[in-house]
Design a protein that fits this description.
By secondary structure, the protein is an all-alpha fold. It has a single domain, classed as Up-down Bundle (Methane Monooxygenase Hydroxylase, Chain G, domain 1). Helix 1 packs antiparallel against helix 2, helix 2 packs antiparallel against helix 3 and helix 4 runs antiparallel to helix 5.
Length: 230
C-alpha cells in the first residue's frame, strides 16, 4: 500500500473512531440525563450534548469527503474498499443515532415531570441500556475484528423490539385509562415516541453490526434474515 493511500485510509479510521466515541459518550450522557432531577444540571448537560451533536454532524461530512477522495484518488484494494465502505455505512448510522438522542432529549424534557413517565422511567432506562450495549458491541465487532459481537447484536435486535411492545402494553393495561385528560393522552403519545427512538437506536446498532460483518467477511447479510425468528 502506498504511503498516501495508507494515510488516507488511516485518516478515515481516525475520524470514524472519534465519531464512534462521541456517539457512545452521548448515549452515556443521555442515560445519566434521564435520571437527573436538578434542572440547572440537566440544562448544562443538554447544552454540552448539543455541542457534541454538532461535532458528530461535522464528522459525518468529513468522513464522506475522505471516503470519496480515497476511492477516487488511490483506488484501494478490494479488502480496503470493503473496510472503508463498511466504515462509511456505520458513519451514517452513528449520525442517525445522534439525531435520535436529540429527539429523546426533547421528549424527555417535555414529559419528565408527568406521572405517566415517572411510572415507567425505570423500564425505559433499562431499555435504553440494552440499546446502548448493542451499539457498543456492534462497534467493538468492527474495531476488534470480531464478528461474534456483530452476530450477538443482530440477534438481540428482536429482543429490543419485544421490550418495546410489552412495555407500552403493560403501561396501558396498568393505567386504567378511563378517559383521562388530553395532557395524559399526550404523555402516552410522547412516551411511545421516546420508546420508538430507543428502538431505532437498536436498529442502527444492527446496521453497524451488519456493516462490520461485511468488512470482516466480505458478506452482505442485510437481507438474509440472520438473527430473526431464532
Amino acid at each position: 500500500m502506498s504511503t498516501k493511500k495508507e494515510q488516507a485510509i488511516n485518516d478515515i479510521m481516525s475520524s470514524f473512531r472519534e465519531m464512534a466515541n462521541l456517539t457512545l459518550g452521548q448515549l452515556s450522557m443521555l442515560e445519566k440525563l434521564m435520571s437527573v432531577n436538578d434542572r440547572a444540571l440537566a440544562d448544562s448537560m443538554i447544552a454540552e450534548m448539543r455541542e457534541t451533536e454538532n461535532r458528530i454532524d461535522n464528522l459525518e461530512v468529513i468522513i464522506s469527503e475522505q471516503f470519496t477522495n480515497t476511492i477516487v484518488l488511490y483506488q484501494p484494494l478490494a479488502s480496503d474498499v470493503r473496510r472503508i465502505v463498511a466504515c462509511y455505512r456505520m458513519t451514517i448510522n452513528l449520525e442517525r443515532i445522534g439525531d435520535r438522542i436529540m429527539n429523546m432529549i426533547r421528549i424527555t424534557s417535555k414529559i419528565r415531570n408527568s406521572p405517566e413517565y415517572s411510572q415507567i422511567a425505570m423500564l425505559i432506562n433499562n431499555m435504553l441500556t440494552s440499546g446502548i450495549v448493542m451499539v457498543e458491541k456492534s462497534l467493538l465487532s468492527f474495531t476488534n475484528s470480531d464478528p461474534d459481537f456483530a452476530i450477538w447484536t443482530i440477534k438481540n435486535d428482536s429482543v429490543i423490539d419485544e421490550m418495546n411492545h410489552k412495555l407500552l402494553l403493560s403501561h396501558i393495561n396498568k393505567s386504567e385509562m378511563d378517559e383521562k385528560t388530553r395532557n395524559m393522552v399526550m404523555s402516552y403519545i410522547e412516551i411511545r415516541d421516546l420508546i420508538s427512538n430507543i428502538e431505532r437506536v437498536a436498529d442502527h446498532a444492527t446496521n453497524i453490526a451488519e456493516a462490520s460483518i461485511y468488512s470482516l467477511q466480505g458478506t452482505d447479510i442485510r437481507h438474509t434474515g440472520i438473527g430473526k425468528d431464532e
